[in-house]
Amino acid sequence: MGEIGENEEEVKLVGAWFSPYVHRVTWVLKLKGIQYEYVEEKINSKSSLLLDCNPVHKKVPVLLHHGKPIAESLFIIEYIDETWKQNPILPTDPYDRAMARYWAPYIDQMILEGSKRALYVEGEQLKKEIKKVSEAMEVLEGMLKGKKYFGGERLGFLDIAFGWIAIWLEAIDQVAGVRFLDSHKYPLIHKWKNKFREIDVVKDSLFPMEKLVCFFKKYSQYSKLKLSEATK
Amino acid sequence: MYITPVKQEDLANNMAEEVKLFKTWSTPFGLRVVWALKLKGIEYESIDEDLSNKSALLLQYNPVYKKVPVLVHNGKPVSESLVILEYIDETWNQNPLLPEDPFERARQRFWAKFNEEKLLPTIMAIFTKEGKDREEAMAAWVENLKFVEEELKGKKFFGSEKIGLADLVFGWMANLIGIFEEVTGLKIVDERYPLLLAWMQEFYEHPVIKDTWPPHDKMIIKWQALYENYHPAK
Q: Which residues contact A198 (CB under 8 A, 6 or more apart)?
């Protein structure tokens, strides 16, 4: 990502290619033109770097700035916004910031975690997850009324937080055999999705659909196995 | 219902400065917000809800989660206690809950989330479950406490030198751990965690905090009843 000179900030991002949480951080780093070194974690073996810098959760992403680790993607984004002031990501008004901080984790809980679970649960459980995700998609659709982006005229914190929907959700739909990303039910989300995918900093995150589908198939099989072992 | 008198100068200067807090008499999530308001000396009106019979006003202000606490500032509602705490900190700048340094801010936010996602679910599992499930919850709790104890090394508070956002979020431990220990007969935070025990004591007795605790007897009755629900006498 460029030479680290003596006067340059030392920024390192520990991530995994398939993680939407990681990509939202890279979008922010790129939007602000911040040079960083990227370290890819392997899926099944956690590196000593990761275990050192996120001993509590042992998860990606972790941002290292001058060697100090910051974990939790939404907090990393706030950290970046507070440290590098160009191209602000969060709104300035405290009430708008409260709304951003409220909705981002809500959608993570309802749609990101919900759709992931839809990949491996069945029957009544699956019905529950589908209902949860659909309700949250309705909320999202409503939030886009009269807006170009979730942030208004320009890209904002919520676009970054929800951006994974424009890339990952279609693959999840395919593997889980559901239709979360229904362009008829959610025309505004559909429009936003296409606009989001056009953004320069997002283009590097556009995987071939087969790669994501293959990943989610493996994730689904692995999780189903784990679940059946746990319930024996 | 406790209504704060409005000062004359407030009326003159901040005609629209109206702060309402919807909570219940016992919710630790609402108590966090009370602490933030008190630490900053913010006047507010407190409305204690009966959750089995939610007021129309509450449902109007928090249609998504229908939960307390909800802070209403000049008619605009903010819900989710962590979001409310940050909103308060950014709106009223005196006695900051979070310092200026972005790394310190990220650190406290991390631990606040740790409390919500790790500590709270495990303590509720210890309280509600039995047998092997309870043992597993206890094991997870012990793991979690190790991290918390480690984090307090070299610090007086989670916020470092003074009370910060993370302290308010962990604050439930200062009264509820004792109550849970009394009700369940279990030792939940033992002498393996001297820093945590010292912090709990310090926080419990803090001049701004100490008069806010809900009545002990009432809490015992409430939690005893809940406990019996989950563990009916055979």
A: none
Does the CB of B78 have a partner CB in chain A at under 8 Å? Answer: yes
Dmax over CA atoms of chain A, in Å, equals: 58
Q: What is the DSSP letter of B189?
A: S
Q: In chain B, whose CA is at the least distance from the CA of A80? A: B102
Write down the pTM of the prediction.
0.92
Q: Can you tell me the distance from the alpha carbon of B91 to that of A93, in angstroms, rounded to the nearest whole number? A: 9
Report pLDDT for A49. 84
Give dist(CA A117, CA A137) in Å, integer: 16
Q: How far apart are CA A76 and CA A23, in angstroms?
A: 12
Please report the number of interchain residue pairs, chain A to chain B, with beta-carbon separation below 8 angstroms. Answer: 54
- At B212 the pLDDT is 97
Locate B12 and state its tokens: 């003159």
- Name the residue among B73, B83, B106 with its Cβ closest to that of A75: B106
Structure tokens at A114: 């919900």
CA B110 to chain A, closest CA, distance in angstroms equals 7
Measure the CA–CA gap between A36 and A33, rounded to whole angstroms. Answer: 9
- The region that residue A52 occupies, defined by phi over 0 for left and psi between -120 and 50 for alpha, beta otherwise, is alpha
- How far apart are the two ends of chain A, measured CA to CA in Å? 48
C-alpha span between B164 and B158 (Å, rounded) = 7
CA–CA separation, A23 vs A163, rounded Å?
9
Is B54 or A99 the better-scoring residue by pLDDT?
A: A99
Residue B69: is the preceding peptide bond cis (ω within 30°)?
Answer: yes
**Any chain A CB within 8 A of the CB of B4?**
no
Q: Is A101 on the interface with B (CB under 8 A)?
A: yes
Q: Do B113 and A98 touch (CB under 8 A)?
A: no
By DSSP bridging, strand A37-40 and strand A11-15 are: parallel
Q: Quick one: which of A134, A126, A199 has its CA closest to A166?
A: A199
Report the C-alpha gap between A6 and B57 in whole angstroms. 58
The burial of A213, by beta-carbon neighbours within 10 Å (0-12 exposed, 13-18 middle, 19 or more buried), is given as middle
At residue B60 the predicted structure's pLDDT band, cuts being 50, 70 and 90, is confident
Cβ neighbours around B207 below 10 Å, total: 7
Each residue's pLDDT tens digit, A51-70: 888 888 889 999 999 999 99
Using an 8 Å CB-CB cutoff, list chain A residues near B113: 72, 75
From residue B93, give the alpha-carbon distance in Å to each of B16, B31, B99, B151, B195. 18, 20, 11, 26, 30
| B78: β partners | B71
